[in-house]
Amino acid sequence: SSACTGNDNDAACRSQRTEVNNVEPPRNGWICEEKEASKAIKYERNETNILRLAISYHKLRHWEKLQVLISSELSSLEESPKEETVAGGGNNQNSSKFYRNQLAVLLKDASNNLAMETKEGTSMKELRNFDLDSTMVEHETFNNLNLLHYAASMGDIRLLENAIALGAAIDFPVKEPNHNLKGESAPIGATPLLLACATLAMYGSIPQEHVRLMFREQPSLA
Fold first, then answer.
1. Bridge partners, 145 (sequence order)
2. Are 201 and 192 in contact (CB under 8 A)?
3. Which of 23, 101, 116, 175 could form a cystine bridge with 4, CB 3.0-4.6 A?
């Protein structure tokens, strides 16, 4: 098979991405799988364990960890001496190419996701400067939302992913309002999940023609 460059137009890449997407969920879930794979790779660093951990990171959307893991592995492969071609070695060569193709697809996905910005133009690296749970952010309506509350109420999936990946608590309740910020108080005690459900319920009850008009007037809500 041909080498995968990470470009989705390549047949090899499409095939490898299908392989990754179709991996069956482990019996104990991906969080347990990540922990077990991390232990396994410390015991023996081989292709099987590296792919096991990489796919766990991919499924859990731990893009930075995935990027570091694969970049390190690809560097090691480049530095290691090429295996000499011997009779009957075709299967080994095909296996090595298949492995590299899988790594290329996973690295491409990690790079693409890390490069994406939130609706507010915030990148994952910028979020490292936030006290994610305690710092309140400005909202069009409310004056007591932290970053995760804000993302849930705005429907900003990218910001939600980034904040959670950096350790924001998904059950952190809305606190007392910050009167230095404009707006009213959101219900004290509400969690990001509750705000997300309330937002979904609100938009779900609005007639579709009104929703389309609202999105045209405020594209940032789309």
1. 137
2. no
3. 101
Distance CA 89, CA 185 (A): 68
Q: For 35-89, what is each residue's pLDDT tens digit?
A: 999 999 999 999 999 999 999 998 887 888 999 999 999 998 887 765 544 444 4
Query: What's the token pair of residue 182?
Result: 């404009």
Residues 114 and 45: their CA atoms lie apart, in Å, by: 26
Tokens found for residue 140: 């069009």
Rounded CA separation 162/173 (Å): 19
Rounded (5°) CA angle 124-130-132: 95
**Which residues, including other chains, have CB under 8 Å from residue 190's CB and lie 6 or more apart?**
149, 173, 174, 198
Distance from chain centroid for Cα 217 = 30
- Residue 66 belongs to what H/E stretch? helix 63-79
Say what angle helices 47-60 and 29-43 make with each other, to 10 degrees.
150
Contact 209, 168 (CB under 8 A): no
Question: Is residue 92 scored above 80 in pLDDT?
Answer: no
Tokens of 214: 């609202």
